[in-house]
Specification:
Elements: H1 3-16, E1 21-37, E2 40-58, E3 61-67, H2 74-87, H3 112-116, H4 119-132, E4 138-156, E5 161-179, E6 182-192, H5 200-213, E7 223-229, H6 231-243, H7 248-252, E8 273-276, E9 297-302, E10 305-306, H8 313-319, E11 327-329, E12 340-342, E13 346-349, H9 356-363, E14 365-372, E15 382-394, E16 397-401, E17 405-410, H10 411-416, E18 418-421, E19 426-428, E20 431-433, E21 436-445
């Protein structure tokens, strides 16, 4: 019996126990993870994670249970979920689970090369990349590579059935350079569904080169100025700041700064942001979400106006709209243990008319910000972030790397203060975005 049949049986078992609705989400994922630290292999492991999460719904109350063993009595797993559901409070906002639909068929989501790659091959790749990064003044090279082949299964009491297979490979390189007591670090990374879409050597060499450049970094100044935001920092600002704030659950609970902004113009006409779960080869492209709703493409912000939210079946039912196919589990799409929540798919920022050079010349005196590890406050929209990788712009030219410098702005001010959007998009994990020029940003530095 395969996982799909186990899922069907679990749903049947819960229905026999008198609940109103039920769904089962199964995952069979094999992951290889290799970590290299300071030139030596630190971790090499294979993780085979197989299991099913069951959700039982009684008068709107949801109960969860799961099993990571298919040798157990499935009726026991069903009983735990049903017991939890019947012990909870009724929730009239729950309307229904998804109904059967035709699923889309996006391409380039499975790669036989990733599926067949061995731990030994990934170890060799890590070691080879680390050697290529051994430049003058490079102090340490840390590399993490992870490959995965997975199958996901969804069955619910409304007759939904779905099976999907996919692969991904991710690489992250963190390089530290040292010159005397002066140290500088840089990170490069990405994740892809198809191996040929990734250039590991290019990523690692760039991390090394940027770390070395950072040894000459300078403080900036404390001022309000214009900044150019590149794709890495935009993943933080757009994905974790703007798009995450359009999570319908947070909006409905009043926990997002976007709650009063729905159907309101918040930004410039040139700003359009799309949630797209159907891009061929997209990192977060799927045929269906973890509830079995077909993945979709829809605008979240269109010409500066907040047009849409990210919904799962619960929030959609509560709002009287259709789910957008953005249900996930608390640990992501390969998590069968966690509860159902909401997350974005691939995020696309529509291009503008400016080249990066034109933006730099327009700024004259400001910053090119490439990365930060800080994230916005979703309740308020405030962002105060240390620049971990960026450059000073002087007289319309990119000059010196910047260090120990913060930038701060509320995201509602940021989208109003956009002065230019680039005409060339770059991919970074699940974000596809051009650079964006923003004015009147508070910058603080020691100098």
């Amino acid at each position: 019996m395969d996982l799909l049949e186990y899922c069907k049986k679990l749903v049947d078992e819960t229905l026999k126990l008198g609940v109103d609705a039920s769904d089962a989400y199964g995952v069979d994922a094999k992951t290889i993870k290799i970590e290299l630290e300071k030139g030596a292999i630190k971790t090499a492991k294979i993780i085979h994670d197989v299991g099913i999460g069951i959700r039982a719904i009684f008068k709107g109350s949801m109960g969860y249970s799961y099993t990571a063993s298919l040798d157990v009595d499935l009726s026991d797993i069903a009983q735990k979920a049903v017991k939890a559901a019947k012990a909870g409070y009724p929730d009239p906002d729950f309307k229904d689970l998804p109904r059967p639909s035709k699923y889309p068929n996006p391409q380039r989501l499975y790669d036989s090369k990733i599926a067949s790659i061995t731990p030994e091959e990934l170890i060799d790749l890590c070691s080879s990349l680390a050697k290529k990064a051994e430049m003058d003044k490079v102090y340490s090279v840390n590399i993490t590579i992870e490959s995965s082949i997975f199958k996901c299964f969804i069955v619910n009491s409304n007759g939904v059935e779905g099976v999907e297979e996919g692969t991904y490979l991710s690489l992250g390189a963190y390089v530290t350079a040292k010159d005397g007591t002066n140290m500088s670090s840089s990170y490069e990374g990405d994740a892809v569904r198809i191996l040929s879409d990734l250039d590991p050597e290019k990523l690692v060499l760039k991390a090394a080169e940027d770390a070395i450049k950072g040894l000459n970094a300078k403080h900036y100044k404390t001022t309000r100025t214009s900044v150019i935001l590149a794709e890495k920092v935009l993943l933080t600002i757009i994905a974790e700041g703007l798009v995450s704030a359009l999570n319908a659950d947070l909006v409905q609970r009043g926990r997002s700064y976007m709650t009063p902004k729905i159907n309101t113009k918040i930004g410039v006409d040139e700003l359009t942001i799309i949630n797209d779960g159907l891009i061929d080869g997209g990192l977060l492209t799927r045929r269906f979400d973890v509830e079995g709703t077909p993945k979709q493409r829809h605008a979240l912000i269109e010409k500066g106006i907040v047009k849409g939210l990210l919904h799962n079946s619960y929030t959609a039912g509560k709002a009287g709209v259709e789910s957008t196919g953005n249900a996930t589990r608390s640990g992501g799409d390969l998590d069968f243990r966690g509860q159902v929540t909401i997350a974005s798919s691939n995020i696309i920022v529509e291009i503008g008319d400016w080249s990066l050079n034109e933006m730099i010349q327009e700024v004259k005196d400001g910053l090119l910000i490439l990365n930060t590890y800080d994230t916005p406050n979703i309740a308020t929209g405030d962002l105060s972030a240390m620049i971990t990788h960026g450059y000073i712009i002087e007289k319309g030219e990119v000059t010196t790397p910047v260090k120990q410098t913060l930038f701060a702005i509320n995201l509602l001010d940021l989208v109003k203060n956009i002065k230019a959007i680039g005409k060339e998009r770059a991919k970074y994990f699940n974000l596809y975005s051009p650079p964006i020029l923003v004015s009147d940003v508070q910058v603080s530095s020691k100098a």
